[in-house]
Amino acid sequence: MTSLLNYLHDVFVVKFDAWVILGFVAQAFFTMRFVVQWIASERARKSVMPVAFWFFSVGGGALLLVYALYRKDPVFIAGQALGLVVYLRNVYFIIINGKQVSSE
Questions:
Q1: Which long-range contacts (CB under 8 A, 24 or more apart) does 48-53 make?
Q2: Which residue of 34, 48, 63, 99 could cross-link 26, Cys pair, CB 3.0 to 4.6 Å?
Q3: Residue 69, number of CB atoms within 10 A of its CB
Q4: Where is the Lipid A biosynthesis N-terminal domain (predicted)?
């Protein structure tokens, strides 16, 4: 039990800095995409993908990529970079088409 407490103290207290704050902010952005999608689907009573989902995806993905680059984590960098391509492509389609189309 002491080892676990020491580990948690090291991770959440000793290593806490501005980069960790950025990581938490980025994760909050990324989480918000699920919240807005859930709310939109509940209101529509069907599965929908609101425009805000993609903007939160870009914001959260970009911030998490910055965080991953700082941490020098190749798995995290690759995952966020590839995801960001998908998010940006969807935002591009929304911009050129002028609206979000939901599949039923």
A1: 48/102, 49/100, 49/102, 50/100, 51/94, 51/100
A2: 63
A3: 13
A4: 22-93
Neighbours of 4 (CB within 10 A): 8
Q: Over the Cα atoms of the chain, what is R_g?
A: 17
pLDDT at 18 over 80: yes
Angle subtended by helix axes 51-71 and 18-44, to nearest 10? 160
Q: Are 33 and 60 in contact (CB under 8 A)?
A: yes
Which pLDDT band, with edges at 50, 70 and 90, does 102 fall under?
A: low
Q: Name the pLDDT band for 40 (thresholds 50, 70, 90).
A: very high
pLDDT at 104 > cutoff 80: no
C-alpha to C-alpha distance for 11 and 37, rounded to whole angstroms: 31
Alpha carbon distance 81, 104 (integer Å): 29
d(CA 65, CA 72): 10
